[in-house]
Design a protein that fits this description.
The chain has about 240 residues and is α/β, with parallel strands linked by helices. It has helices at about 35, 40-45, 50-55, 55-70, 95-100, 155-160, 175-185, 205-220, 225-235; strands at about 5-10, 15-20, 25-30, 70-80, 105-110, 115, 140-145, 165-170, 190-200, 220, 235. The radius of gyration is 18 Å and the shape is globular.
Length: about 240
C-alpha cells in the first residue's frame, strides 16, 4: 500500500488527472442483479444486458487495484421500500414515466427459486453482482433516485472520509452514472469515469454520447488499464 504522501497520475481525457489515494473513492453504481442478470429487470424488459455484463471483469480488476492502493470503495444500489413509499406518488414522473413501465415492485423468482421483487431493497433483484461483492471496509449506500446524492448519506459519508476524487464505474452510463457525476461535480468533487467499466442497455451510442459530455463539462474519462497501470506502476511524492 502506498504511503499517505503519494499521488497517482492517471492518463485521461481531456488531460491527465492526479489523485491522492487517501482522498479518493471508487464508486460502483448499480451493479446489481436487476441490471446484469438473466431474470433481472433489464432482461425481463427485453433490454440488451451484454454490455453491462462485459463491464464486470474490468471493474473487478479496478476494485482489486484500488483496495491494494488504499482507495475507498463505495457501492450505490438502486432499490425501493417494499411498499414503494419512496418511489413517488402515482403522478410523480419518477414513478409513471420510468419505474412503473419497468414493472418495479412486481413479484419474480430468483434463480434459486426464492421469491423476489423487481427493484425492491433486500431482495435478489437488488443484490450486488457476485463477482463484485463488497469486502470488509467497503461502503454501501442505497438510493431511490438516479443520482446517488439525492436523499442519501453519500455526501456526508464521503466528506467524513475526506474524499475529493471519485472514480466511477457501473451502470447505466447515461442515466444513473451521469446523474451521480453531475451531482458530484456540483458539490466540487473531481470525477473520473472509467469507460470500459461503465455501460448501459440502450446501446453504445448513448454510452458514447455521455462520455463526450462528461469529459467536456463534468469531469474526465479514462480506461481501467490506465487506472490500474497508474496505481501499480507510478508513485509521485507530494511536494512538502
Amino acid at each position: 500500500m502506498p504511503s499517505p504522501s503519494s499521488q497517482f497520475i492517471i492518463e485521461a481525457r481531456p488531460e491527465a488527472v492526479t489523485i491522492d489515494p487517501a482522498k479518493s473513492a471508487v464508486i460502483v453504481v448499480d451493479m446489481q442483479n436487476d441490471c446484469w442478470a438473466e431474470g433481472g429487470m433489464f432482461a425481463l424488459a427485453g433490454k440488451d444486458i451484454s454490455l453491462i455484463q462485459a463491464a464486470i471483469a474490468p471493474t473487478s480488476r479496478v476494485l482489486a487495484a484500488a483496495r491494494r492502493a488504499g482507495i475507498t470503495v463505495v457501492y450505490l444500489t438502486m432499490g425501493f421500500q417494499p411498499d414503494l413509499s419512496d418511489a413517488g406518488g402515482p403522478d410523480a414522473p419518477n414513478w409513471f414515466k420510468v419505474h412503473k413501465r419497468a414493472r418495479v415492485g412486481e413479484s419474480t423468482t430468483a434463480p434459486d427459486g426464492t421469491p423476489s421483487r423487481i427493484l425492491i431493497r433486500d431482495t435478489w433483484n437488488t443484490a450486488i453482482v457476485p463477482e463484485l461483492a463488497p469486502e470488509p471496509g467497503d461502503l454501501v449506500v442505497n438510493k431511490h433516485r438516479f443520482s446517488g446524492f439525492f436523499e442519501t448519506e453519500l455526501d456526508e459519508l464521503l466528506k467524513s472520509h475526506s474524499i475529493k476524487n471519485l472514480i466511477f464505474t457501473g451502470c447505466t452510463t447515461s442515466v444513473c452514472v451521469e446523474s451521480t457525476i453531475r451531482d458530484a461535480m456540483f458539490r466540487d468533487y473531481i470525477c473520473l469515469l472509467l469507460a470500459d467499466c461503465t455501460a448501459e442497455p440502450l446501446g453504445q451510442s448513448n454510452h458514447d454520447a455521455s462520455l463526450v459530455l462528461l469529459q467536456r463539462t463534468f469531469g474526465w474519462v479514462s480506461e481501467s488499464a490506465e487506472f490500474i497501470t497508474a496505481l501499480e506502476g507510478q508513485l509521485v511524492p507530494v511536494p512538502s
